[in-house]
Design goal:
Blueprint: E1 3-9, E2 14-16, H1 35-55, E3 73-77, E4 86-91, E5 97-98, E6 104-113, E7 123-133, E8 136-139, E9 142-149, E10 155-167, E11 174-187, E12 199-209, E13 215-227, E14 233-242, E15 250-256, E16 262-267, E17 270-276
Parallel strand pairs: 1-17
Antiparallel strand pairs: 1-2, 3-4, 4-6, 5-6, 6-7, 7-8, 7-9, 8-10, 9-10, 10-11, 11-12, 12-13, 13-14, 14-15, 15-16, 16-17
């Protein structure tokens, strides 16, 4: 019988809040919790959310437009279609701003574009100032590079984050996070006015050290499907391995594509049903 636990979810990674695992060998070290997964979730959710917010000011036609969340303001310098690089600043203010994706943000996101969003080799460098995502303080630089089109004609972006830090809102612990991801702009590029039908397929790796000192690695097994109009990742699988417990990898499965809060995690032959927040 499948067991059910409630999990905390990112736009790209899901995680447990607290669960005790059991294994087949009594002498094996077994993970007592999934704090590493939760810290990874907070980081991945925050940086994926930054990508979405940048998408509100860079439409699918490759133009840059001055708009953002209803409770945020955006500015573009210089404000024309011919001069590059451009600096896009999104200011969420000093109190929490609720976005259309259900996440709270405050602080400032600054993105410097070397060219148009859809131009091959355009690099977008994203920095943060007093930035908070769901009350987690997020620090670090995100670099997004347009790698051109794949064999299907879809744009592919390389996303790199090195040495990011995430500070927990209640216990004050700080975790570190790194990732190299590739995001395929899979659907929605023909409807530039409506960003909420955009679909990305994501694959790659991540690693970090949790706030309690637990190192971990993550590998995407089958591409994660992110629908901009859906709060949750809807499809794909990844494996999380705690470095101190290499014999107990955890495989996560988001399902077959439905926009719902359901997923599963499999550890040591036992599958857990997941309800994502």
């Amino acid at each position: 019988m499948k067991k059910t636990i409630k999990f905390f979810v990112a736009i790209a990674i899901i995680a447990t809040t607290s669960v005790v695992y059991t294994g087949c060998k009594k002498e094996d070290k077994k993970p007592k919790n999934a704090n590493s997964a939760a810290d990874n979730a907070a980081a991945d959710n925050a940086f994926a959310g930054i990508w979405k917010q940048i998408g509100t000011v860079t439409d699918s036609s490759g133009a840059i437009r001055s708009m953002a969340s209803a409770c945020a303001t955006a500015s573009i310098t210089p404000y024309d279609l011919t001069t590059w690089p451009k600096t896009v600043t999104i200011d969420f203010g000093t109190t929490n701003c609720l976005g259309n994706d259900g996440n709270y943000r405050r602080g400032v996101v600054t993105a410097v574009f070397t060219g148009r969003y859809q131009d091959s080799l355009t690099v977008i460098t994203v920095t943060l100032s007093n930035y908070y995502h769901n009350d987690y303080r997020i620090q670090g630089t995100q670099t997004i590079t347009n790698m051109g089109r794949n064999a299907s004609g879809h744009l592919v972006y390389k996303v790199v984050v090195n040495g990011a830090t995430v500070t927990h809102p209640t216990n004050g612990q700080t975790s570190t996070w790194n990732t190299v991801q590739y995001r395929e702009f899979y659907a929605g590029y023909n409807t530039p006015i409506n960003i909420f039908d955009d679909v990305y397929m994501i694959w790659g790796n991540a690693n970090g050290v949790s706030g309690d000192g637990e190192p971990y690695d993550i590998t995407v097994n089958t591409a994660l499907q992110v629908n901009i109009g859906c709060r949750w990742i809807v499809k794909g699988t990844f494996t999380l391995t705690l470095n101190n417990y290499p014999s107990y990898p955890i495989t996560f499965d988001y399902g077959s594509g439905a926009c719902d809060a359901l997923a599963t995690a499999t550890l040591n032959g036992t599958t857990y049903n997941i309800v994502m927040n």
